[in-house]
Specification:
The complex is a heterodimer of chains A (360) and B (184).
Chain A lengths: L3 E5 H11 L4 E4 L7 H9 L1 H4 L3 E4 L3 H13 L4 E5 L1 H6 L1 H9 L4 E7 L15 H5 L10 E3 L4 H18 L2 E7 H5 L1 E5 L9 H7 L23 H21 L3 E4 L6 E4 L2 H16 L4 E6 L1 E3 L3 H8 L4 E6 L5 H9 L4 E6 L8 H13 L2
Parallel strand pairs in A: 2-3, 2-4, 4-5, 5-7, 6-7, 10-11, 10-13, 13-14
Antiparallel strand pairs in A: 1-8, 6-12, 9-11
Chain B lengths: L1 E9 L4 H14 L3 E6 L3 H4 L2 E9 L11 E6 L2 H7 L3 E9 L14 E4 L2 H7 L6 H12 L5 H11 L8 H14 L1 E4 L3
Parallel strand pairs in B: 1-4, 4-5, 5-6
Antiparallel strand pairs in B: 1-3, 2-3, 6-7
Helix pairs in contact in B: 1-6, 4-5, 5-7
The chains are: A alpha/beta (360), B alpha/beta (184).
Chain lengths: 360, 184
């Protein structure tokens, strides 16, 4: 068993990055995720593993530092919260286009604009549908606990390099700020220069006489060439859809109704499930863990067995579009959400189920 | 066993750290725990609260609207959280600074004059441990040896010499807890 600690979600992200063999973290402070860099600065990972931690002059600078670091085959990460992540969209699109591996953590707060510093899930569309320009996708993980904050960092680095793609961890202010028990994974040493060259033959690691220059770019002015790039990317996204879907089902076996929720909302729905079942309502919970690739087939299978589905999100209805695309018009699907930093209570969720699905 | 607790008072009273010590002690005893603080505008208004859940099972929602126990350390928190105690649940308050005493008839109520006692003994920095002692007397969720380990984990090493004093404060809390209303 790994080391047990009581940690904030944000601290778990930071510790997991060090343990995952991250080479560089570049970020700019913003509530509610500032503990990520605070923890890294206090922990001095340069002394532990040689990892660089740098406070950039802005989010735009951070994401471009990520582009540069990733281009040399290094394991790089940034984190921010919603307004900061908006600033990074151009860089994320460029990294998707140039096929660069990196981990981007969004500890979401309420918007739009500067919004509020309280938790929200209103950045689902931005994360899943491509916040930047062009036809790109990222693998998006939605942790629902501090344990998953740690586990998903390790996983995100693995998948970023496997697919040569930016990977996003879409968390929220509550999971970032709360403390839970975490079992930390054993540290993975940072890659040596030789290991980077072996693992990333595409990276700009210095040209030996045996090959031509490696060029890191998202630009191809020849449309035929650019279409090829797009086809290659799409092929990669289809591979992710086939192989990377993650989800969890809780008490769906005998369920007559279903909650679909991710991240913090899924935790609230789990409590709502207990409350509803105590009242005799047979409800279960389907929790997508990857938001892209979305568990379309699995939701269709479970969802088509129930009388109605309530999608619970801390937004005005974003993931519900993917749930509806998965199921078509076969089942009644409604949305319940609170916005702007308000977290719904489990009782509210049960009431919404009774009013919108059972009674509606 | 699942115990859902809200601890609420002013910033600086040690509300968050009391919750953290309790939660860390739970971790040391191999329980599932969650610690969810208020942050942001609420805190900037001077009040602080934290939801602590200790359980033998996986914890569902870290955010709750009703609690098994409310530990209340100022009037604003009394106004906000007295009504959130589950029927048959427990409310512990420090009367110092309370102007409207709890009125519920369907819950167990205890008072603990921790601020007063801490002031008299020059222990104002570990006032929160006196309150924690009162709670642990009624709900011994974690054994004293694990509280000791929880203190070791929660406090920076330079403060470890203060652990015996913290433990004394916990014992003191157990002694001075006063029943106000105990349901049959």
């Amino acid at each position: 068993m790994g080391e047990l600690r009581l940690m904030k979600g944000n601290e778990a992200i930071a510790e997991a990055a060090i343990r995952a063999g991250c080479d560089g973290y570049f970020g700019y402070p913003i509530t509610p995720q500032s503990e990520v860099m605070e923890y890294l600065m206090a922990e001095k990972p340069h002394e532990r593993t040689g990892m660089v931690v740098l406070q950039a002059e802005s989010e735009v600078a951070s994401i471009n530092m990520l582009y540069g670091g990733a281009g040399t085959g290094k394991k790089v990460m940034t984190s921010s919260s919603s307004p900061g992540i908006s600033l990074m969209q151009e860089g994320i699109s460029y990294m998707a286009g140039a096929e660069l591996p990196a981990v981007v953590v969004n500890v979401v707060r309420g918007g739009p604009g500067l919004g509020t510093i309280q938790p929200s899930q209103a950045d689902y569309f931005q994360a899943v549908k491509g916040g930047g320009h062009g036809d790109y996708k990222m693998i998006v993980y939605a942790p629902a606990s501090v344990q998953e904050m740690s586990d998903h960092v390790k996983l995100a680095f693995d998948k970023a390099f496997q697919y040569r793609t930016p990977v996003m961890i879409l968390s929220d202010g509550a999971i970032g700020q709360m403390m839970e028990k975490v079992e930390l994974f054993d540290p993975i040493p940072r890659r040596t220069d030789e290991e980077v060259i072996a693992a990333c033959p595409w990276a700009s690691t210095g040209r030996p006489k045996t090959r031509n220059h490696n060029i890191i770019t998202s630009l191809d002015l020849d449309p035929a060439g650019q279409e090829k790039v797009n086809l290659k990317l799409q092929e990669k996204y289809r591979m992710m859809e086939q192989n990377e879907v993650m989800y969890e089902e809780i008490m769906t076996g005998d369920a007559e109704y279903l909650f679909v929720a991710f991240g913090l909302s899924a935790r609230i729905c789990q409590k709502a499930t207990d409350i509803a079942r105590a009242k005799g309502i047979k409800v279960g919970l389907f929790r997508p863990i990857t938001l892209f690739p979305f568990p379309t087939v699995q939701i269709a299978a479970t969802g088509s067995r129930v009388k109605g589905i309530l999608v619970v999100e801390m937004n005005a209805g974003q993931m519900i579009e993917d749930v509806r695309l998965s199921l078509g018009c076969k089942v009644k699907i409604e949305h319940f959400g609170r916005f702007g930093g308000i977290i719904p209570s489990p009782d509210e969720v049960v009431k919404a189920l009774e009013q919108k699905i059972i009674g509606g | 066993m699942t115990e859902e607790i809200i601890i609420a008072g002013f910033g600086g009273q040690g509300v968050l750290s009391m919750g953290k010590i309790l939660a860390y002690s739970g971790v040391m005893q191999n329980k599932e725990v969650s610690w969810m603080p208020s942050y942001g505008p609420e805190m900037r208004g001077g009040t602080a609260n934290v939801t602590v859940i200790i359980s033998d099972e996986r914890i569902s929602s870290p955010i709750l609207n009703s609690f098994d126990t409310a530990i209340i350390l100022n009037q604003q928190s009394m106004d906000k959280f007295e009504k959130t105690v589950k029927p048959g649940g427990l409310l512990i308050y420090d009367p110092n600074g309370i102007t409207r005493f709890p009125e519920r008839k369907d819950i167990n109520i205890y008072s603990i004059e921790a601020a007063d006692e801490a002031g008299k003994r020059g222990l104002s920095k570990i006032f929160n441990m006196i309150v924690l002692g009162g709670f642990l007397k009624l709900k011994p969720l974690v054994a004293p040896e694990f509280i000791h380990k929880g203190l070791e984990k929660s406090l920076p090493a330079r403060h470890h010499k203060l652990i015996p004093e913290n433990e004394k404060a916990i014992e003191l809390g157990k002694e001075i807890l006063k029943p106000i209303q105990v349901l049959n």
